[in-house]
Design a protein that fits this description.
Layout (H helix, E strand, L loop, with lengths): L22 E7 L3 E7 L5 E5 L3 E3 L2 H4 L4 H10 L2 H11 L2 E7 L14 E8 L4 E2 L2 H11 L6 E6 H8 L21 E5 L6 E5 L17 H9 L2 H13 L14 H17 L8 H20 L1
Antiparallel strand pairs: 1-8, 1-9, 2-3, 2-5, 3-4, 5-6, 6-7, 9-10
Helix pairs in contact: 6-9, 7-8, 7-9, 8-9
Length: 296
């Protein structure tokens, strides 16, 4: 069961071809969690979180995935999915499970919004318009499309690489700015995410000069937004049933892992001397009040 690849920020080498050719499609980035499903040979649906295969029985899965598995079981036209697979081979369908995290969305927001379809035989994601057709044919809505641009025109208007500057618009499903946008170019295969300033995972400045490089790293990258995201991911991935203080045994390292995964290219350019023991202690100290706030 295909696992969805990480979407990077502009400036990462995986986003280099975003504005080279083709079309850039701008999608709303939603504050839920990554969820997937596929059809089994016996016409059941097999479900999965971002990292965990959950099985085929919605009643047996339950818990935090109860709403989304029930929603998909009730709404997906499995016979139509079988027809698509006779034409295209096995498919894995990805979308956003709209569980409540930091942002509160309208009651009319669907429980699941599709955004990608993996064609296993060809080892590729379907072009977005084709993926939309598949989802809509199955009875599933897709994430909002905000606009489309010729890739070169998009790059000329908003910049490229680390200089790309795109203002995140209002959300389709809440009263306020969207969490961010996902930029995708189906011709080059490049994807990138832009997060609204209010939800970014790193500080732009600090009031006092850090005394050590480790403190500087923590102040810059270990933000409340990153800690909240890591805590919710531990629940979303099934490692914990709910947000609770005992998660402190896993949360600090989850935050450190996320920092390395997202920020390593910038960190390695700095002439920093990092003390790993100090890093773990400082991240743990930052995590405690944030997790307490989430579990009240």
């Amino acid at each position: 069961m295909k696992q969805y690849p990480k979407v990077r920020r502009p400036g990462h080498r995986e986003t280099d071809a975003l504005c080279e050719r083709g079309t850039v499609t701008v999608l709303e980035k939603l504050d839920g969690n990554n969820f997937r499903f596929e059809r089994t040979g016996s016409d059941d649906l097999r479900f999965g979180s971002r990292t965990t295969k959950l099985g085929t029985d919605p009643d047996g899965i339950g818990g935090q995935f109860d709403a989304v598995t029930d929603y998909l079981a009730e709404n997906v036209d499995v016979a139509r999915l079988a027809e698509f697979e006779r034409e295209r081979g096995p498919l894995v369908l990805f979308g956003e499970n709209m569980v409540e995290h930091t942002l509160e969305y309208d009651r009319e927001t669907p429980q699941f919004l599709g955004f990608d379809v993996w064609q296993a035989d060809r080892e590729r994601f379907l072009p977005f318009e084709e993926a939309v057709f598949v989802f809509e044919s199955l009875g599933i809505r897709t994430v909002p499309v905000l606009e489309r641009h010729d890739a070169t025109v998009f790059g000329n208007e908003y910049g490229t690489g680390a200089d790309l500057d795109y203002e995140v618009p209002e959300s389709t499903y809440r009263d306020g700015v969207a969490e961010g946008v996902v930029l995708r170019n189906d011709e080059s295969g490049a994807r990138a995410k832009v997060v609204a300033p209010a939800f970014r995972e790193r500080h732009r400045s600090t009031s006092d000069e850090p005394e050590t490089d480790t403190e500087r790293l923590v102040e810059q990258y270990c933000t409340d937004a990153r800690i909240e995201k890591a805590a919710h991911r531990l629940v979303d991935d099934g490692e914990w049933d709910e947000l609770q203080m005992p998660m402190m045994e896993a949360l600090p390292m989850a935050v450190v892992d996320d920092i390395w995964a997202e920020e390593h290219e910038e960190i390695v350019r700095e002439d920093w001397e990092i003390d790993m023991g100090e890093l773990r202690n400082r991240v743990s100290t930052q995590c405690v009040p944030v997790l307490k706030g989430l579990t009240r």
